[in-house]
Write a structure and sequence with these properties.
The chain is mainly alpha-helical and 136 residues long. Helix content is 65%, strand content 0%. It contains 6 helices and no strands. It has helices at 2-22, 26-33, 37-44, 52-62, 66-71, 93-127. α2 (26-33) packs across α3 (37-44). The longest helix has 35 residues, at 93-127. The radius of gyration is 34 Å and the shape is elongated. The termini are far apart. 9% of the residues are buried. The mean pLDDT is 84.
C-alpha cells in the first residue's frame, strides 16, 4: 500500500514539475486539455489520475514520452529541460598549425599591400604627380 501511495505522489510531482517547467498555469493547461482546473489540481495533488487520452495529450504538450509521464523513465528526453550545449571539439594539432600559418600569410600580405599603397602615395606627393595625367 505504501508503494502505491509513493508512486501516486511521484506521478503527481512529475505532472507538477512538467507543467512548471513548460511555464503553464493550471488554468492554461486545463484549457489545452479541455478539462477543468480542478482536474489538474487533483492530478497534481495525487487525488486522481488523468484518463489515457489526456496522458497522450500531456506527452504531446510537454514533448515527453507517455512512459516518462506514467513511470518517470526517461526513454525520450524532454524539451522542457534546458538543452545541453554540445561539447566543444578539440582541433587537431595539424589543423591548428595550418590555421596559424594561414593567419601569418594573410597578415604579411596585408602589411605588404599597405606598404606599397603608402609608397605609391608618397611617390605622387613628392614628385608632384608628374607622371599622372590630370594631377596638379
Amino acid at each position: 500500500m505504501d508503494d502505491a501511495m509513493d508512486e501516486a505522489t511521484k506521478f503527481a510531482d512529475r505532472l507538477l514539475d512538467l507543467r512548471r517547467k513548460a511555464g503553464y498555469s493550471q488554468e492554461q493547461l486545463a484549457d489545452l486539455l479541455g478539462v477543468s482546473r480542478q482536474a489538474i489540481s487533483k492530478w497534481e495533488g495525487a487525488q486522481g489520475r488523468p484518463e489515457v487520452d489526456n496522458v497522450v495529450k500531456l506527452s504531446q504538450i510537454y514533448r515527453v514520452s507517455t512512459d516518462f509521464i506514467l513511470t518517470g523513465s526517461a526513454s525520450v528526453p524532454s524539451v522542457c529541460e534546458a538543452p545541453s550545449a554540445p561539447a566543444p571539439r578539440e582541433l587537431s594539432r595539424e589543423y591548428r598549425f595550418a590555421l596559424s600559418a594561414l593567419m601569418v600569410i594573410a597578415g604579411t600580405a596585408l602589411v605588404f599591400v599597405l606598404v606599397v599603397s603608402i609608397l605609391a602615395i608618397l611617390s605622387m606627393v613628392l614628385t608632384g604627380g608628374a607622371d599622372i595625367p590630370g594631377w596638379k
